[in-house]
Design a protein that fits this description.
The chain is an all-alpha fold. Helices cover about 85% and strands about 0% of the residues. The protein has one domain. The longest helix has about 30 residues.
Amino acid sequence: MSNYLIYFDDRQRSSLDVISGIYSILRDEAARTSNKDVKFGLSLNLISRKSALRLS
């Protein structure tokens, strides 16, 4: 396997992890409020807050 393929696999996996993380944040908020809709502004706030806590 070439270096490019290893790098590509790692990048693809990490991007899926980010998407999965965002999805779980929104899913948890929808479950907490018993509502299927999460407003866009609230979504941005939740995602930016969670990512700031993980980087600290």
